[in-house]
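Hi, here's the filled form for the chain we discussed.

Project: internal
Contact: R.S.
Residues: 338
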Amino acid sequence: MTARLSLLSLLLAGLSFCTTAQTIEQLTSGKATSIRGLCAVNDHIVWVSGSQGVVGKSLDGGKTWKWITVKGFEKTDFRDIEAFNANTAIIMGIGEPAHILKTTDGGDNWKVVFADSTKGMFLDAMDFYDNKHGVVVGDPIDSKFFIAKTTNGGNTWKKTPPIMQSNAMAGEACFASSGSNIHYFRNKDFLFVSGGTVSRLHDDAGGRSIPIIQGKESTGANSIAVRNSGPRVSNTFIITGGDFTRDKDTTRNCVLTNDGGQTWFHPATPPHGYRSSITYITNKKLLCCGTSGVDLSTDSGLTWRLISETGYHVCRKAKKGKTVFLAGSNGRVARLIL
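And the returned structure, exactly as it came back:
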C-alpha cells in the first residue's frame, strides 16, 4: 500500500510539474502576417495588427478570430494598434508614407485620420492614457524625433513643433518592434526610448543615456514598462532590448530605475536574449518576449526565468482585466497561463 501511494505521489508530482511548466497557451497561428501590434481592451476583446495590411479581432479571449485585410493598404505594415472597445480601434502604418487609420464599426471600414509623405517619415509606436488622449512617436527627421498628439480619440492629430521635439544624435532612432517604446502619463508627460548606435531615454528634459547595449544599428532599447502608481507619475520603470541580430545574447539587454532614470541597475539574472516587449502583470510580476523566447519575473525584474523558447514580438496585459496576451510571426497569438 505504501509503495502504491509513493508511486501515485510521484505520478501526481510529475503531472503537476508538466501543468505548471506549460505557461504559454497558443491561441491561433498560420495567418500570413507578422504581428507587432497588440491591444487587449479586457480579458475578452483583443485586437492585433501586422504586415500585409492585416488586422485581427477576437471577442472571446482569443478562441475565435475575425481577420481583416484593410482595403487599399494590403502592403502596409501596421506595427501598432490601440483599441477602445469591440468597434473602435486605431492602427499605425509605419511609412513611407506614414498613415494612422481608425475604425468605429469593428474593422469593416477604416478612415485615414493621419497621413504624412515626408521623406524619411517612419512611425514607431503609439500610446493612449484614456480613450481621447494619445501620442505617436516617429524616427528623426532633420535630427528631430517626430511627435504628434490627439485629444479626440485619434480623429485628428497635431504635430509637435520642431522646437519642442527631442534632438536625435547621429545613428539614433526608434524600433517599431512592438508598439511599446513609449508611455503616455495622465499628466500629459510621456517617455520614449531610442536605439541604434545611441540608446537613450527621452522626456521633456531631453535625452539621457541608458546603460543598455548600443553601438550598432541592431542594438538598443526596444520597450519600456512603467509600474502602476495610480494617478501619480511613476518613477519606477524597466527597459528591455538587446541586439536583434544576436537574439540569444543577454549582454546589457535590460535596465531598471526607481528614480525616473537618474540612476540605473541591471537584473541579477537578465532575460535570456533580445527582448522586444515588456509588460507589468502586477507591481512585482513582469513578462517580456522576443524572437528567442519569453521570460517571467516575479521579483520586480531583478531575476528572470525562461518559460518558453517560442518567439513572440509583443506582449500586453489587458487594460481592464488580468489576462496577458502575446503575438508574433506567422499570425501567432498566445496567452500567459499563470
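Let me know if anything looks off before we file it.
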